[in-house]
Amino acid sequence: MTSPAAETRQLLEALGVPASRFTGGSRTVRTPLTGEAIGAVKDDSPAGAKAAIGKAQAAFEAWRKVPAPQRGELVRLLGEELRAAKTELGRLVSLEVGKIASEGLGEVQEMIDICDFATGLSRQLYGLTIATERGDHRMMEQWHPAGVVGVISAFNFPVAVWSWNAALAFVCGDSVVWKPSEKTPLTALAVEAIFSRAAKRFGGVPDGLFTLILGAREVGEALVEDPRVPVVSATGSTAMGRIVGERVARRFGRSILELGGNNASIVTPSADLDLALRAIAFAAMGTAGQRCTSLRRLIVHDSVYDELVGKLKKVYASISVGNPLTTESLVGPLIDKAAFDGMQKALEEARKAGGTVHGGARVTEAGPQEAYYARPALVEMPEQVGPVVNETFAPILYVLKYSEFDEALALQNGVPQGLSSSIFATDMREVERFVSAQGSDCGIANVNMGPSGAEIGGAFGGEKETGGGRESGSDAWKAYMRRQTSAINYGRTLPLAQGVKFDVDDGGTSP
Ligand code: NAD
């Protein structure tokens, strides 16, 4: 059987990444499947990041002159290259992050989808014509390219998050400098190679339109601090966003923050419990609980609590945990030891707060000692306290009981995060209240499905400590452009707005 290291090498070579990019560097990349080293990349320095920003600035000045539908052609070609590379890149995502095979492929499909969306968008960057109070005047609103967009991304969607930002930024006329997670540089190198093939086919892409910079926080900070980067899109923990958001704001830059979630589902008395069970299982245990939208809190009406939680306990006890590329397992490994330790700490805190923990132990037989597999944990909590109000990036589902709908809504909204939420109900009054202004306070509110698994067509993001940013579909593109309002006087007089008079003595030169 091919080892993960050998397979990674084969995949990277097939994707066109030169061996010098993933061997011989000082940062060791490990696969969470077995813990073994699968690459050694060279980090960029903060000075290298500054140089990349300089090149991106020059590229922006050329790219903004290219008509938007032609910019869309580059993104269309990128989508074609991603289609051709889907099998290999999807597999590489699984090797580097530990996702099951279909989720690795799904991540690449999401990249293809956003390229299709952005290609169409390149002909739809509409502005407005606005009625003006002044005679012989016209007023309009235009959207112009913003400049260099800095993208900082998290480990758990190592390539899709880049594409959500970059596909929009390219059609909007911006250049992109990307710092991926230091845990996932290999998939980023593959994206760099795929992009360069699209750029070659396009011809005439300015040098520096897209630059990948590798490294940890210090390299990201170079993007955050640099006034030549008007837009910083940062995806990761709330702790990171608190620092990045403040620093970008200090220099009056714009940040698109996509931070931690603590997503809940409410199960009402009218819910279809079989459907709910399947949806909860995927949302809470899929991706080993390492999605920003993973289901972390289940708020169940007391009339259906015993039936639903009884069934859930059986599903939790039987779900297969193991190497998703060599077994049929639905739950793969946690990214690293720190993630496993964080999970155990949260479970201990839950016990201290009166919780009853089912599952959560390490599955040592699933992989070598250096790999961290854990059984997903279901935790019955007496109240929403302690670890329940924090995001632990692991497969822990806290279960709470409610009796009145208002109480369920208060629990759903009673955490600092505001990314995603859902309700299971067939009572239309409860459904409508949940999605109304008095309902869920999250950026995403689903009905009869879990909180995870968003499509690219909608704007993605959340409120409160999730950061308030929106990416991907709908009109999220506006964050990558600058808005300009222009009033044009085509008359021979100078009427002032609000009827203001300011008649100066022009010495009789007026007509
Ligand atoms: P992380 O915060 O540890 O790192 C994210 C990225 O930020 C990395 O590239 C890291 O190097 C960089 N970084 C950290 N500190 C920085 C600083 N001060 N300046 C500049 N860059 C800095 O997150 P992670 O462990 O990779 O990912 C998991 C977290 O990401 C979870 O909280 C999850 O909910 C969140 N997430 C959110 C979304 C979303 O769309 N809301 C999507 C995916 C992941």
Automatic annotation (TrEMBL):
Protein's name in the database: aldehyde dehydrogenase (NAD(+))
Active site positions: 258
Record text on subunit structure and interactions: Homotetramer.
Domain Aldehyde dehydrogenase, chain residue ranges per copy: 28-485
Family: Belongs to the aldehyde dehydrogenase family.
SUPFAM superfamilies: ALDH-like (SSF53720)
GO MF terms, alphabetically ordered: aldehyde dehydrogenase (NAD+) activity
EC id: 1.2.1.3
Pfam families: Aldedh
PROSITE patterns to which the protein is assigned, alphabetical: ALDEHYDE_DEHYDR_GLU (PS00687)
Annotated keywords: NAD, Oxidoreductase
Broad enzyme group: oxidoreductase
